[in-house]
């Protein structure tokens, strides 16, 4: 797990995803040398930021979110409010895309935080409630992104206490992949069968539960590669409308170098939060969250979003409130 939480690893994974998609799809690129040059520059950037990594200095065995328990209760109450108001997406009460209040929903999709709060909770009943809620909340709202983030958060905390074998990791990844496919089918029944993408192999014999993760991982890269020569945003299939976040940055100015700018800013942000995590392990969950967002930016716009801004603001405010409280407590002694 330590390898997956280094600041430079998301760049490496992004390159592998883009390259893998290039091999999986029948795409003819005129500017493939420019693509290779961008990949080469990303590798150089990756190497530069692999130097002096701060991960070893973070005290991962004692992760405590300041005022985390209060925030956990706010998340649970906010989630219950939305379920009462809108219904439960997994039961067919409402479509996933229509679920939740604007902006207020940021609180509800912060339930991954409960995995970290539960880590240091002494009351076994409350600990169990936090863990169960963090697992079932994304399932109830059919939020696959939140499910993956919660899974990673739980695995990070478990691995901080004991070593997880490769066998167990592979079993859990298989289970998550199956659940991911099932959630895709519930959200959009048989929609995967209407998606025609130019794979270099026959996909008709693959199970829908395998197709959903495959399309999720590769389709945004395909959209980017399919538009790479003319830097457009044309869709090969109207149901596949996502692009990697770095490609959105390229489209802003029509310059390929903006992909490097995007990843540079991502890693700078990660390094800042990583250093803050060395100062106080309160920021370690935020660091893992931002690492995850960087990973997911290979598939859609994830890093520079209002949700990321909200999450960063919450962690900073919780820390400031805690410091102020401790300072006042010392003065009043």
The major β-sheet equals:
none
Average residue pLDDT: 84
Shape field: globular
Instruction: Report strand %.
Output: under 5%
The assigned structural class equals: mainly alpha
Q: Helical proportion?
A: 55-70%
Put simply, the count of helices is 13
Q: In total, how many domains does the architecture comprise?
A: 1
Low-confidence stretches: none
Number of strands: 0
**Using only CA atoms, what is the Rg?**
21 Å
Distance between the terminal alpha carbons, to the nearest Å?
43 Å
- H/E element order: HHHHHHHHHHHHH
What are the key terms here?
single chain, 333 residues, 13 helices, 64% helix, 0% strand, globular
How would you explain this protein's 3D organization?
The chain is mainly alpha-helical. The chain has one domain (3-331). 64% of the residues lie in helices and 0% in strands. It is built from 13 helices and no strands. The chain has helices at residues 9-24, 32-50, 68-86, 105-108, 113-119, 124-140, 144-161, 166-187, 208-227, 245-253, 258-279, 284-296, 306-331.
